[in-house]
Q: What sequence folds into this?
């Protein structure tokens, strides 16, 4: 992998974007898929990948790309690329972007900041009449969240060659609809080949989604890498039985087995034996899901995160051992597991981190380096080219995947100032 020339245009000025215009675009996009969160009274965003809401958001953003003069193409995964030409026809593009899909209870910023920030950076280059040597492309990756079709960073993983296109197309949502069919239905099964030629570099601006920057009182983080992610689905098969008549000794209660698994995961975290392990059971259902029936089946998802691959592997092995023990200790209970997603710790390129840090310095923005707790498209594109990310501070302890998710207009503008300046320096001035 060739490193980008981090000394490109060392005296290039720092680019300041139009923060009001950026904010308006974030708020406008958030209206697509908006919902009123009954319990909190907040307005959130529900734009699961390849739903009608996601498709409407995509069309809105394609319109903004075209207004900004970008040439738009869509690939066979529905990934969207908007291209601004450079002066060197042989130069690989500097890529930026993120995702537009959200979780079902999302906010206005997760992913959108990176895409709309990329478009805002292009508008700013245009307004300054700046041409770059390398082209600049703004990407929208499909199904980053992974909550509809079960695998996160899906579009970027296929673009980077880690996941085959056929496998991705065959993934199904909970209603059994395939991703391939949903791409066709929404009009986003594009004609372009999905494998991305290595870009010159990739930079993604994203909200932090955690409390580190807020605790430090800073707007900007330079991201050093992304921790490992392990997703699996566990199905526990017990036996349906009458709630009133079945003595405890005759029950094979799949719901109880699920509860024991949840508690066991928490005890693994609390033991400290797996480093900085995080464990989440975000999906848990019992069947037939009725008051007076002992659950016949339970399904749960396990999301493990760990910055250390050895600790992660041991946590996975110990969870598997605990499931075998549960099965062996409960007559009639059987356990099945299905791998949904798995990525190792991904370190980011130090050269690109350096360009980001210099850009922040030149904007007078204090910054710190930090590891990402969340998964990002950048971790996939990092397999193709030197890559790093800019984090923007979130309010309310950086809460995210929640309608309360919020970054101030100033913090967003600062992040995109740093993005625009970094893109310019990586792309170099055209001649
Ligand atoms: C992506 O949002 C993740 O789950 O980290
Ligand atoms: Mn995201
Ligand atoms: Mn997310």
A:
């Amino acid at each position: 992998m060739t490193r980008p020339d981090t000394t490109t245009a060392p005296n290039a000025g720092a680019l300041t974007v139009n923060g009001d215009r950026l904010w308006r675009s974030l708020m406008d996009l958030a209206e697509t898929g908006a919902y009123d969160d009954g319990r909190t009274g907040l307005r959130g965003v529900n734009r699961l990948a390849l739903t009608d809401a996601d498709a409407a958001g995509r069309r809105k953003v394609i319109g903004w790309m075209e207004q900004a003069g970008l040439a738009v193409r869509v690939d066979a995964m529905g990934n969207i690329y908007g291209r601004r030409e450079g002066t060197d026809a042989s130069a690989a593009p500097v890529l930026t972007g993120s995702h537009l899909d959200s979780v079902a209870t999302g906010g206005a910023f997760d992913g959108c900041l990176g895409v709309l920030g990329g478009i805002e950076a292009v508008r700013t280059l245009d307004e300054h009449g700046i041409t770059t040597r390398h082209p600049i492309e703004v990407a929208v990756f499909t199904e980053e969240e992974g909550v509809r079709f079960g695998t996160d960073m899906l579009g970027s993983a296929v673009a980077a060659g880690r996941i085959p296109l056929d496998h991705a197309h065959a993934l199904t949502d909970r209603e059994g609809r395939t991703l391939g069919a949903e791409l066709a239905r929404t009009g986003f099964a594009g004609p372009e080949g999905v494998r991305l030629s290595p870009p010159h570099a990739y930079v993604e601006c994203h909200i932090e989604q955690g409390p580190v920057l807020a605790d430090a009182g800073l707007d900007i983080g330079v991201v050093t890498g992304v921790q490992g992610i392990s997703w699996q689905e566990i199905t526990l098969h017990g036996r349906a039985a009458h709630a009133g008549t079945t003595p405890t000794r005759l029950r094979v209660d799949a719901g109880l087995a699920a509860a024991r698994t949840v508690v066991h995961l928490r005890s693994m975290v609390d033991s400290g034996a797996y480093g900085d392990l995080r464990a989440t059971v975000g999906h848990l259902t019992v069947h037939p899901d009725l008051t007076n029936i002992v659950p016949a089946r339970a399904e749960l998802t396990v999301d493990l995160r760990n910055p250390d691959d050895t600790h992660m592997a041991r946590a996975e092995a110990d969870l598997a051992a605990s499931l075998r023990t549960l099965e062996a200790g409960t007559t009639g209970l059987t356990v099945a597991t299905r791998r949904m997603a798995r990525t190792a710790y991904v370190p980011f390129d130090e050269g690109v981190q350096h360009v980001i840090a210099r850009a922040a310095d030149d904007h007078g923005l204090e910054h710190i380096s930090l590891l990402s707790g969340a998964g990002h498209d950048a971790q996939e594109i990092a397999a193709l080219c030197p890559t790093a990310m800019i984090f923007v501070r979130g309010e309310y302890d950086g809460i995210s995947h929640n309608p309360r998710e919020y970054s101030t207009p100033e913090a967003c503008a600062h992040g995109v100032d740093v993005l625009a300046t970094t893109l310019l320096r990586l792309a170099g001035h055209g001649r």
